[in-house]
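Let's practice the habit of predicting before peeking. Look at the sequence and jot down your guess about where helices and strands might fall. Then scroll down.
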Amino acid sequence: MYIVLEYLLIENFIINFLILYLTKILVRSNVRYRRIIIGAAISSLYSLVFFSPKTLFLTLPLPKLILSALLIRITFKYINFKFFLKELIAFYIISFIFAGATLGIFYSSKSNTKIWDMGIDILNGFPVKYLIIGVLISLIGGKLIFKYYHQKVLKENYIIDLTISYNEQNIKLRALLDTGNSLVVPFTNKQVVVVEYEKLKEVLPSKMEELIRANWECNYKLIEELLKDLQEQINLTLIPFNSIGKSGMLFGFKPDYLMFNYLGNEYIKKDIIVGIFSGTLEKEMGYSGLLHYELINGGVEHEYIKVQN
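Done guessing? Here is the structure:
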């Protein structure tokens, strides 16, 4: 019995760790792995209730719900009740995915006669190979589901319809409200909205493409010549940037205004710089610009003008 008990605890620890880890991914929690390990270790002890008739009441729905809530509270940092409820629901969704995948593989591999005759021993009889296959399928399926879910949330809450007006021409595109975009112009601290060149080229001088190519090739002599040629057509701003493993310079210009819709309200922003990006920001999600995060956080009270309907 000692060997069976040890195997049971290890098996439950691994499965519970995976469930809690996927819960962390789904709710985008920054909980440390140490807390997930502690939570998985505690929850693996739940399997011991089957060894005593006195503790079998803990397998009833209400006690199981209470224990699950305690597990979430122990594992994840409490923020508020709404987020706690979100974590608990995510935990159950992932648990159902694991159980469904494992049982589905098990029963689909057996004939109806064998299933009727064999039954499953909770402690010893469930073949480990089905658990392994079920876990793998759950991980792959869970990853695809979470990817779809995050993309849906991203599209609904963080991708914004944006209009840039320059020289009495309007450019319409979709932009991501990027919490990682803190780019500002040195000295003036004007916020920068990064936009793909392909979306802007219709309103920019034709030599801008040559300037961007020269910048990409680090041809500083040609850059200097082109800047002199362009100074009468457009007032360009040099914007140094740093990203992961890369640094460089963007060319920016001040539009007449920038307008976007967020949470049902339309706003206009005038004191801003548009940085011209030579590459492609993102294809799958369909956005061509990156909005500075402070355009939403606190911006309305300071520099926005609400458009009257």
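How did you do? The two ends are 75 Å apart (CA to CA).
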